[in-house]
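$ ./design --mode recover --in tokens.txt
reading tokens...
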């Protein structure tokens, strides 16, 4: 029964993907007759059409970019810049058809995977994917969620044939099939980059499928790690240490991108919806809109980094590139889209000066990514070691009576913000002294229990209670305010 369901759902996936393409193809059947011709030597007639030529150029540009990423060792460049024709000729020759180029790039991407990840998922695994649901869509792609046979959740990315990228192209060039292909190259670009750029804060590529059996053209699907789309409103309601973790993940990612094997990588469309959260860590998922080119310049005046509310003047380096412009653009975007909202709000007071320094220094681009990461690590160290707590001479714990082998009766209790659970007041602490200080500061709190759970920096989760009803529990200890105890007697 389960198997039957699995097969029918995977068939549904293929059917859905095929339908997406079909819906485009039927409406533009006649126009496509021209587009279906290759863009090699036998397309001279259609290439005289300037619009058609433009589309072919766009496709070629994408192909060349993918080739650059697939072969990161740069060939010697002729003086005065690169020679794209040479790259194209040396790799494929002008007489190759679009589908030839597509398959060659695809085979390279697949080959890279076979070498790197044993057991990478392929088309045959699609038969066993169950529970397919829509997750999201963007400018280029549609993303679906599914489960592998062993229950692992995955995300599937394919071209969004109704998306802005394909639609804009069709409106401009009227070539549905080639426009679909143009978008599909972005998925190959993303797959290639996901293979080259491996980092805990980059979504993991599990595999890919290239289905060439459909009459209306190949369908290309990337299989990746499943995450949860970033929702800023939800993040704003989480405890500070969770928000700090998001910002720290981002800084680690940007540090890696600034020093990546492909050079300094710029995220061109830096928006929260290009990221997802996996087990509390932020990971970038949209890698089709990135660049490794640093802006060329002759003088410093060519190096203006522009944002809607602020511009920065950078220096033109001796090699004719604006110095570290990609790194700086990424960092300022991290500041304006993430740090501003997530970092300072309800931070532990002793960490505020350091956080304030991070905010000012990244907001003014005084810090580069190395110094930013260093300062984030410093904040983490202080937070983990409990050094951030002020007034450590005062001992609140003295005012508590300890009941070993007891817990508090489970019933509804007071709520606090920002609690780790919605039903009560569950907060993270460095030690019992900090727990006692928190309980002291909350009027409703009469007792607390240190649970067995810890949060990501290794802090203990403590349940604060207004109740004083003790019950036996060999594995638990209750700390009760002495004042509450006196009231009970
Ligand atoms: N791995 C994933 N897990 C969960 N949701 C995802 C994942 N990848 C992408 N998404 C969702 O799908 C949307 C579109 O994906 P994205 O790669 O950004 O496509 P596009 O290039 O079209 O913008 C994202 O904004 C995000 O909400
Ligand atoms: Mg996107």
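writing sequence...
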């Amino acid at each position: 029964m389960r198997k039957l369901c699995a097969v029918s759902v995977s068939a549904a996936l293929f059917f859905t993907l095929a339908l997406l393409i079909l819906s485009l193809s039927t409406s533009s059947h006649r126009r496509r007759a021209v587009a279906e011709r290759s863009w090699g030597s036998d397309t001279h007639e259609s290439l005289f059409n300037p619009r058609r030529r433009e589309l072919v150029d766009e496709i070629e540009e994408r192909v060349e970019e993918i080739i650059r990423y697939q072969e990161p060792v740069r060939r010697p460049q002729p003086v005065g810049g690169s020679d794209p024709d040479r790259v194209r000729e040396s790799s494929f020759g002008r007489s190759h058809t679009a589908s030839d180029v597509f398959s060659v790039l695809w085979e390279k991407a697949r080959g890279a995977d076979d070498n790197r990840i044993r057991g990478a998922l392929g088309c045959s695994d699609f038969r066993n994917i169950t529970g397919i649901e829509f997750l999201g869509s963007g400018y280029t792609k549609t993303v679906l969620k599914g489960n592998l046979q062993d229950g692992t959740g995955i995300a599937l990315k394919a071209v969004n044939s109704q998306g802005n990228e394909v639609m804009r192209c069709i409106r401009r060039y009227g070539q549905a099939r080639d426009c679909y292909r143009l978008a599909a190259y972005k998925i190959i670009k993303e797959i290639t980059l996901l293979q080259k750029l491996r980092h805990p804060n980059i979504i993991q590529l599990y595999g890919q499928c290239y289905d060439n059996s459909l009459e209306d053209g190949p369908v290309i699907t990337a299989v990746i790690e499943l995450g949860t789309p970033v929702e800023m409103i939800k993040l704003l309601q989480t405890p500070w240490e969770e928000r700090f973790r998001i910002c720290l993940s981002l800084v680690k990612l940007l540090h890696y991108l600034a020093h990546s094997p492909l050079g300094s990588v710029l995220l061109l469309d830096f928006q929260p919806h290009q990221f997802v959260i996996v087990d509390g860590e932020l990971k970038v998922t949209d890698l089709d809109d990135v660049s490794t080119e640093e802006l060329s310049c002759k003088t410093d005046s060519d190096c203006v980094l522009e944002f809607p509310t602020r511009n920065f003047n950078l220096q033109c380096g001796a090699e004719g590139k604006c110095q570290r412009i990609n790194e700086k653009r990424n960092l300022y975007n991290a500041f304006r889209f993430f740090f501003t909202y997530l970092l300072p709000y309800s931070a532990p007071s002793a960490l505020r000066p350091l956080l304030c320094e991070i905010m000012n220094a990244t907001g003014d681009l005084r810090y580069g990514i190395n110094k930013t990461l260093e300062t984030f690590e410093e904040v983490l160290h202080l937070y983990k070691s409990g050094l951030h707590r002020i007034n450590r001479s005062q001992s609140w714990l003295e005012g508590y009576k300890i009941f070993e082998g007891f817990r508090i009766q489970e019933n509804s209790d007071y709520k606090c913000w920002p609690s780790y659970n919605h039903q009560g007041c569950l907060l993270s602490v460095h030690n019992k002294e900090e727990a006692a200080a928190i309980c002291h500061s909350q009027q409703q709190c009469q007792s607390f229990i240190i649970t067995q759970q810890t949060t990501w920096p290794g802090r203990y989760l403590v349940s604060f209670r207004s109740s004083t009803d003790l019950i036996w529990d060999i594995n638990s200890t209750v700390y009760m305010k002495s004042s509450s105890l006196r009231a009970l007697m």
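exit 0
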